[in-house]
Amino acid sequence: MKRALAGLLLVLLLGACQQRVIATVTRFTTLPPPPINRTFTIIPDQYQVGNLEFQQTAARVATALASLGFRAVPQDQPADYAVFIRFGPAGARTEIIDYGPPMIGPYWRRPYPYYYPQYSSYTLYAAFLEVDMLDGAAWRRHETKMAFQGRAVTETGIREFNVVIPYLVQGLFDHFPGINGETVHVVIPVP
């Protein structure tokens, strides 16, 4: 009876976890609070040029920035900020839940050799999104002057990164630009 109750509790707990994504978000910033009436351009690195997954992620980041008052400009025009994006999976780990010995039946009374542990396992997949915003004028002079650095990391039961990326973008830009040097946990509901 207790084993069945523990199994039901696990199913309910996992069901509740699938209805939200919890992202750990860290930001370093010198930006003023929105609305920020400035221009930006997203610059792909050499491995991201032509990459369709990068283009989709960059479009999501651009939409989030536009909603905060930024305006996108093409790469060949001078922008106030040069934006760089890194993202992807960050490994996986397996969680094992041990329910202990069976609470009813003949196995409970038998000595150790007849003890069969009751457990289940599930895998958590980590994913990350990093967005750096550099001062555009300094970047065009080949200097690095950061205006914003943000990172969102999550662990979910979802293996495919493209399913998780919208929630990481939403978590990273929630309460943008945030407090310099602060790490927060952002809960993003899944519709």
Structure in words:
- The protein has a 7-stranded mixed beta sheet with strand order 3-2-4-5-6-1-7.
- Mean pLDDT is about 85; it is low at about 1-10.
- It is α/β, with parallel strands linked by helices and about 190 residues long.
- It is built from 4 helices and 7 strands; from the N terminus they run αββαβββαβαβ.
- The chain has one domain (about 1-190): Double Stranded RNA Binding Domain (2-Layer Sandwich).
- It is elongated.
- Helix content is about 25%, strand content about 40%.
- α2 (about 50-65) links the parallel β2 (about 40) and β3 (about 70).
Topology:
Blueprint: H1 2-17, E1 20-29, E2 39-42, H2 52-67, E3 71-72, E4 81-100, E5 118-135, H3 136-140, E6 146-156, H4 161-172, E7 183-189
Parallel strand pairs: 2-3, 2-4
Antiparallel strand pairs: 1-6, 1-7, 4-5, 5-6
Helix pairs in contact: 2-4
What's a concise summary of this model?
With 191 residues, this protein is α/β, with parallel strands linked by helices. Helix content is 26%, strand content 38%.
